[in-house]
Amino acid sequence: MSGLPQELADLALATARDAAALVLEHAERGVDVAATKSSDVDVVTVADRAAEDLIRSRVLAVRPDDAVLGEEGDDVAGTSGVRWVVDPIDGTVNFLYGLPEFSVSIAAEVDGEVVAGVVLDAAKGRAYVGYVAPDLPGGGVATRDGRPLAARGPAPLAQRLIATGFSYSAEMRAVQAAATARMLPLVRDIRRHGSCALELCHVAEGALDGYLEEGVNLWDYAAGGLIARLAGARLGVLRGATGRDLVVCGPGHGYEELEALARATGFTGE
Fold it and tell me: Measured between alpha carbons, how far is residue 157 from residues 154, 160, 185, 212 in Å?
């Protein structure tokens, strides 16, 4: 596998840049909702579908034997052992409203392990890139626009800035809101930006002390999670309070305290 993760990261970055440009073209023309999914507020835009189509076609043109798992399209089977995990617009509601916090997220797995990932901050043009390289310190590379990333240093819980997110389901939001209210007095403050992939990159670059959210999917966190881990963070997937996956991510030195806080305040179902 020597060299392959970097090759996959390079392809992901070039493809994500093209997809982000397409997304911004759609934004300039006006955002159109194409459909809804889990609820009336869980929207899919025309740009989501167009960007995923572009990503699939670009990747498979270079690597036709690979598999693809995308948020908006049918899964594509492959024979190479490589699978691409794609979220064409992570933060679709932000995109719909014109809020500048949405991204293109592309990860590559080899035999089930994420080895490369790119999160392209479409509104700001920032490129977060990570890939596994076992011979390097830390086991790989994590950068933003080519500059190395590092998770934030130690801080007591009361001085940690934590990000979270909320489900499209009103019932789940009620549970998440109650847990968030219990956590809020125990930390510095809580943020909610609306893009799991970017929240994880913010942990990677030291702009957050932690992130947790129930109900996210693999395509939301595959790329950002790898980038965060390679920058010195730890990511866990627990059983959330309503039974769905709960992603918890924070600097490795303080992760156990963050996970314990998530359990104590009702984010988990354990």
Answer: 9, 5, 10, 14
